[in-house]
Design a protein that fits this description.
This protein is an alpha+beta fold. The protein is built from five helices and 17 strands.
Length: 324
């Protein structure tokens, strides 16, 4: 019998049962592609990863959902880095080789930060479907849209749908009767990341509270750096706040909501670059509220467009699997 050890972790977690769960196999050597896929289905988490030797990085990592392999994903990158550090003693700075490229990762304690593998200007394209159709598919109105949806790729190809308010994000309910109409990504996957800037939260730079539609209370002029259309602050030293949700269509049908999607958070950084937000930019992204698994991500975009995503990793336990 072959024995393979694994660990269970929560990524982007601020509490024991928050965050996005992840299974990490400490050494995937000797496992076939089919066995890796079968183990990912066995655990049935958003992703399962397998650590392998690498000649170009600290470790090579393969990422599987229950249905397919992925070139890159955010929370598996951070969670796997946590395990690689524990196994190798390499310290708080390491690199992971993935199908999307070599990803640098750094830690401060149990908080890990990755640099998005896209590099440079993000790949952007407009959807084929009209914005009104996309809004209807997601159960929101055209009036809820802050601007047109865009496909972004900073490591994973995803549809980003900006909304005017966090209330609209919470109202989103994908229409199960229209799943076949969803536009597919380059990898033939149907995904949507809906988000809104929470303009009611103060930031350390002293921006005033605003209502959910971007208006300042009691009238007055927009804050410096805030778009006149009610769009969010355009950078600066303060922290902007975003509420996000990520939906995807499962193979075979049905919509699933992912509690914490680091690759989509990176694409939000790409969206900020593509739509001309002033840089540098720091955003605190909350996700997983409706999924019952609160996640918190830190997103930073430097003045030259370098995108990084951070989050806390908590290890829950470990075990082993025996295979013939």
């Amino acid at each position: 019998m072959r024995t393979y050890r694994y660990r269970i972790l929560n990524v982007f977690a601020e509490t024991t049962f928050g965050g996005n769960p992840l299974c990490v196999f400490e050494d995937g050597s000797g496992l076939s592609d089919a066995e890796m896929q079968a183990l990912a289905l066995q655990f049935n988490l958003s992703e399962t990863t397998f650590i392998l030797p690498s000649r170009s990085a600290t470790a090579r990592v393969r990422i599987f959902t229950p249905g397919y392999e992925m070139p890159f994903a955010g929370h598996p990158t951070l969670g796997t880095s946590h395990v690689v550090r524990a196994l190798t003693g390499v310290g708080d700075s390491l690199t992971l080789e993935m199908r999307a490229g070599v990803v640098p990762v750094q830690a401060q304690g149990d908080t890990w930060t990755l640099v998005a593998p896209g590099g440079g200007a993000p790949e952007v394209r407009r959807p084929v479907l009209p914005a009104a159709t996309i809004a209807a598919q997601l159960g929101v109105s055209t009036d809820d849209l802050l601007s047109e949806p865009l496909w972004l790729d900073t490591g994973a190809h995803q549809l980003l749908v900006p909304l005017k308010s966090v209330e609209a994000v919470r109202r989103a309910r994908p229409d199960a009767a229209r799943l076949d109409e969803w536009e597919a990504s380059k990898a033939s996957r149907r995904v949507a990341y809906v988000f809104a800037f929470d303009l009611r939260l103060d930031d350390p730079a002293g921006h005033a509270h605003r209502s959910g539609d971007g208006r300042r209370p009691h009238g007055g002029n927009a804050d410096p750096g805030e778009g006149g259309d009610g769009s969010p602050p355009h950078g600066g030293n303060g922290v902007n706040h975003v509420l996000a949700r990520y939906f995807f269509v499962k193979p075979g049908g049905g919509v699933v909501e992912d509690p914490g999607t680091g690759s989509a958070c990176a694409n939000l950084g790409g969206w900020c670059v593509a739509t001309g937000r002033s840089l540098p930019l720091h955003i605190r992204v909350a996700q997983g509220e409706q999924a019952g698994r609160p996640c918190v991500m830190g997103l930073r975009v430097t003045a030259d467009g370098r995108i990084s995503v951070s989050g806390q990793v908590l290890e829950l336990g470990s075990g082993s699997i025996k295979l013939p």
